[in-house]
Amino acid sequence: MMAAPLAMDLRTRVMRDLKGGMTVVDAATKYSVSARTIYHWKTLVRDQGSPEPRRGRPGRKPKLSNFREQILAVVRENPEITLEDLQQTLRLPVCLSTVWLALKGWGIVLKKSSPRGRTAAT
Length: 122
Prior knowledge:
Elements: H1 8-19, H2 24-31, H3 35-48, H4 68-77, H5 83-90, H6 96-105
Helix pairs in contact: 1-2, 2-3
């Protein structure tokens, strides 16, 4: 889990001091933030005109997001389908654990294996 972004008030005061001639190192000391953070804020100002944090989720887009509707349709048609069968049916370009994590995130739980692969209880 990532920490919450620092307050806009702080960002604005730091940028105002920099504009007034203060060095990044002095501003970092004065406001108890790292110089790297201030350089990042300067990049935000350059790119988007404001030190406001970028919106959206950082990182890579989930690999199965493009397959979501197809996966849900197959699961609706056959709720007894296994993860392995689902992966093979749709030729998903990921491993079984990735399929499982995506389904779990969507609130769906499937059987792990088919009945033919299970051992009988004695």
